[in-house]
Amino acid sequence: MGRGKIVIKRIDDSTSRQVTFSKRRKGLIKKAKELAILCDAEVGLIIFSNTDKVYDFASSSMKSAIERFNKTKMEQQQLLNPASEVMFWQREAATLRQELHSLQENHRRQLMGEKLNGLSVNELHNIESRLEMSLRGIRTKKEQMLTDEIKELTKKRNLIHHENLELSRKVQRIHQENIELHKKVAYATSSSNVLGLGELEDAADASNAQVRLQLSQPEQSCYDSASKS
């Protein structure tokens, strides 16, 4: 036959009550452990006896469970009020910004070799590794910038060299044109001098002919007079 149904009421006998409390407490803690393992749940259990003894169980830590409980309860209460919800998220954002700033400041100081007290060997090794990676990145960036600058300077040098060659060819061409022009001017001057000398000779011949003509006219007159006689 099965056991009869137990009436849930306060046990008057103190000894029976203490025995029942001990058995039920152990069973409750066992069930809490099973619930945490089977369902991957965070479980926190606190039991106060009538003699003010405290029994507790937490799947992670009791402090974490209590903080999570209080935070979740506050969030649920604030979600019922839109204005409170806005204020809640504003406080959350401010808290996260403060935490981020604190983490960044600690990280910066640790990279500068400050606030290293209390760090383990592994943590110091991790900081050293990050510093080495940062230095490698800085060196790589520096080398890339120098390489790009050298390429740019080489490109400018080649461009200037090409421009100098073009200017040199232009100067040579202008010099050659000046020589040709000088030759043309010299030839024109020489031709002008020859032409002027020929005109002078023609003018002299014409003058001599006129003089001879004038000298021959008196003889013709004497000849005419003799004929008339």
Automatic annotation (TrEMBL):
Cellular localization per UniProt: Nucleus
Protein's UniProt keywords contain Glycosyltransferase: no
InterPro entries: MADS-box/MEF2_TF (IPR050142), MEF2-like_N (IPR033896), TF_Kbox (IPR002487), TF_MADSbox (IPR002100), TF_MADSbox_sf (IPR036879)
Pfam families: K-box (PF01486), SRF-TF (PF00319)
GO molecular function: DNA-binding transcription factor activity; protein dimerization activity; RNA polymerase II transcription regulatory region sequence-specific DNA binding
Ranges where the MADS-box domain occurs: 1-61
PROSITE patterns per the UniProt record, alphabetical: K_BOX, MADS_BOX_1, MADS_BOX_2
Membrane-spanning intervals of the chain: none
Protein name: MADS-box transcription factor 23-like
